[in-house]
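User: Can you fold this complex?
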Amino acid sequence: MNWIQRLWTTLFAGRRERRILEELAFHLDERIAANLEAGMTPAEARYDAEKRFGARSRLREETRDVSVLEWADTLLRDIRLSCRSLRRHPGIAATIIVSLAIGMGANSAIFSVVDGVLLKPFHIVDPGRVFALEEFRNGVSHNGSPARLADWARHASSLEAVCGFYGEGLTMTGQGTPERVRTWRTIGDPLAILGVHPVLGRGFTPRELQGLESAALLDHAFWSSRFAADPQILGKALTLGTRSFTIVGVLPEGTDYPGDTDIVIPASAEVQNSGRRASFLSQVARLKPGFAASAAQAELSTIAGRLRMLYAATDSGLEARLVPLTESATREARQPLLILLCTVGFVLLIACVNTASLLLSRASERGRESRVRVALGAGTGSLIRLYLVESLVLAAAGGLLGLALAALSLDTLIRLLPDLPRLTAIHLDLRVAGITLAVALFCGLLFGLVPALQAARSASQTDLADGVRSSAGVHRLWSRRLLVVSQIALSAILLVGVGLLAKSLLLMLRTPLGFEPAQVTTVQVNLPWDTDSAKLAAFYDRTLEALSAVPGVRTAGVIDRLPLRGGTQTGRIEVRGLTLSPDLAARTVSYRGTSEGYFAALGIPLQAGRLLRKRASEQGPREVMINDTLARQFFPDGGAVGRYIAFKSSTPVWYEVVGVVGNTRQSPSQTTPIPEAFLLMRDVYWPMANFVLRTDGNVDPAIRAVMARTNPDQVFRISTLDRELSGTVREPEVRLWLMGAFAFTALLLAAIGMYGLLASDVTQRTQEIGIRMALGADPASILKATGRRAFELVGAGLVIGGLGAIAFTRYLSSLLYIVTTRDVAAFAGAAVTLLIVAAFAAYFPARRAATIAPVIALRHE
Amino acid sequence: MPAAKTDILQGTLTLLVLKTLSRGPAHGYAITQHIQMVSNDQLRVEEGSLYPALHRMEQEGWLRSEWAISESKRRARVYSLTPDGRKKLQDEQQNWTRLTTGVADVLSFA
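Assistant: Here's the predicted assembly.
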C-alpha cells in the first residue's frame, strides 16, 4: 500500500471504522439468527456468535494491518483534543503563542541573516575547495605581496590556483556622466579560483593576466544595469581613471565572490612587480581535487618556514593559514551577528521557560481532570502524550506565527543592519523555515515535558477530590520557582549586555568631538592613485578657489579624511635641536593633508600661532600645524610655535610649526586624543579628499554647477558632515536598539512569568492567609510576606544572572567603546531595572493577598 | 458444540476467499458459511480475522465491495473478484497444488 492510501485511510478512519462495525454487526446478527434456528437459546446463540470472532485482541491486532498509522490517528485525535482544551483557555494560549512567536520570529529573522552572511557558501563552483590564504607576521594579520603570492603559487603542489586581489574604486569616463565603479584588481587568474567561464566573451590571456595588455571582465549585474546587457559590448574600450581597458567578457550571473564588484581587471604590470615589502593583497586559493585542507595547510606552513629563512628581512615571523572563504569574507560581521543570535536565543529560552511555567500552572489546575482521565482508564503514557501534544500544538502555532513575523520584519532588519557583507544572500528560505520549525518542536518538547511529567505524577494519586493539598502541589511550585529564577537570570544577562552597549554609546556620543558638525557641507572626491602630484595639488587649489567663490559659502577647506572616519598616514617625528626620549621618539604621530580653511569651516579653535599659509609651488618654506596633544606631549613647557619638526626618513624634510589647534576625534572609539599634525595637501600625496564648506542655507545646486564646470571628468558626492558622521554612530546605535528591544521583550516575559507565579501562589495560599488573618495577622505583614517571596526569587535570579553576565559579556568586549565588560553601572542598572519590574509584578498579587477577607479565605475551595 | 474444527492455516484464507468469490459476489457471512459447508464442516474460518483479511485484499486490489441488500433484507457489504483477484487466485491455486504435492511426496516417501 502506498503512502497516499495510508494517508487516505488515516484521514477517513472514522468512515472506515463505521463500515467495519456495520459489517460485523450484520455478521453477528446473521450468525445469531442461524444459531437460533439450530435451536440454541438466545444467550447461547449470542455467546457462540461472539466466540467465533475469536479473541478480541486478535481482532484488534489484525485490524491494525488495515488501520495503518494508528498512531497518526491517535495523534490527530490528541491534536483535536488539545485545540479544544486550549480554546477553553484563550488567554493562556494566546500569551504562550504570542511570546513563543516573538521568540521564534526573532530567532528565524536573525538566523536567516546569520545563514545568508556566515553559513551559505558562495555561488562559485565547488566552493568547498576554495580558501582564503591569509598571512600573519608574528601572529599579526597582514596583507600579501605579489612576490610572496608567486611563491605560494609556485611551491604549493596542493593548490590548483592562487589569486591575489585588491579593491579599487575608479572613475569611469566617456560613457555619459562620469561614474564611480568598483573594480577587483587581480594578480593570478580569478576565473580559476571561481571555477566559472564567462557567459559572454572569454577569460584573460596570459599576457592580460600579467597586466601587459589591458582587459576587463564585467560583472553580470553591472553589465545588465549599466550596459543594458548589450551583447555587442565585447571589444569596446572603457576609460577608467587614466587608462583604457578593452572589455573581453562578462561573468556569469550570481557570481557573488568577492562581491561588491563591477569590473574585474588584472593589476597593472607595475603593481604586479611591486616588491616583497608591499602588503596590499587579499589572497585566495583553490585546492587541487583530492587534497584535504589540512594537507594543503601543512604544505603552506612548510613553505612559510622556508620563506622565513630565505627572506629574513621581509618574511621573518611569516605564517600562512587557509581559512574557509565565508569565514574570511565575513570576519568583522561574525562576532556581532553571533552575539545577536545568542541574544535572540536567550529571548526564546525565556519564552520557553515562560511557557513551561504557564503550562505548569495549568497542569495544577488540571490535576483533577488528569485524575479523572486516569480513573477512567487512561494510561500514564497516554496522559503524558496528551500534554506533550498540547505543548507541541502551541509550539507549532508559535513557530508558524513567528515565521510570519520574521518574514514581515526581515526587510527592515536588513535595512537596519549596517554594512553587512553578502546582504543579497539573506533570504527567509525553506532551510530557515525548516530549522525554525524544528527548533519550535524541540522547544515544545522541552517546555512540555516538565508539566507532562508533573501531571502524570499528580494523576497517579488516586483521590479524585480536589482541595486536598498534595505534596505534588508543593513540588510543582518549586519547579515554577526555579523556572522564574532562571528567567530572571537570563533577563539579567541580557540587561547587563544592553547596559554595557548603552553606556558605551553614551560615552561615545558625549566625548567631545572637537569640532562643530552643524551646517557643514562636504564634497567628496576620489582621484586615481596614479594622478601626477603637481596636477593633484593644482586640482585641490583650483577647486578650493572655485568653491570659496560660491555665494553662501562662508569658509571652504579641504581634508584628506573627515574626523571620526579614521586617520590617513602616520609616522614618527623628530624635533630640530632636541633629543627626544626613546618613548617620544617611538610615538606614532598621525598626519593629515588639509588647507587653512579647514579649521574655520569645522570650528576647530586655534590655540596658538597662526593658520597654514597657501603655497603656490613646491618651493618655499614648509609649514605644519599640530594639535594640542602633540604640543603637550612633545613640548610640555610650551613654545611649540616656531620649532621645526620632521617625519623620520633618510632625508628628513623640516616643517616649521606655525600654529596649535584643539584636538579632534579621529575615530568613534578613540578615548584619549592622539597627537596629530596638519600639513598642506600639497605636502601629503593623497588623491581622495573631502572639501568642507561652512554654508548659509542650501547651496548644493551652486556647488554642483561649480564642480561640473571646473572638473567635468570628476565624480563627486555632496553631503553634509552630520550625515557623513551619522554612519559612525549608527552601527553601535542599531546594535543597541536591537539588543534593547530583545532585552525588553525578555524582561516583559520574565515579568509575566513572575506575576503568574505569585498570583497562583497567592491563590494556593488563600486558605492559609485567611487563617493567619483570622488569627490576627495584619494586612501589612501579609503584603510583606508576599513581597518577600518575590524578592527572594529576584535575588536568586540576580545572583545567578550576574555570574552568567560575567561569563557572557566578555564576548561583547569587541563591540564596546571605552567601557569594560565589568562596568559596575551596567550591572547595577540591570539589577535596579529587574527589581523595579519585580516590584510591579509582585504588587498586584501581594495587594490581593493583603485584602483577602478571612471568611472568604476560609470558605475557599 | 461440534468438536474442534481445523482452523484455517495461516495464508490459506486468502486462497479460500478468492475461490469462494470466483463463483460470484458474496458477503462476509456467506463466505464463512460457504467454506464451512463445502469443506463438510472440516474447515472453519475464524470470523474475527475474516474482515481484516477482506479489507486487506480489497486494498491490494483483488476484491471490490459495495453495499447491497441481503437475503434477510439488511444492508450488507458484498465482495466480488476483480481481474487482479482472478489472476491472484490462479497463482495461489498453483502454489497450493505445488505445496500439497510436495508435502504428499515427502509423506509417501517415508
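Chain A is about 55% helix and 15% strand. Residues 55-68, 464-472 of chain A have pLDDT under 50 and may be disordered.
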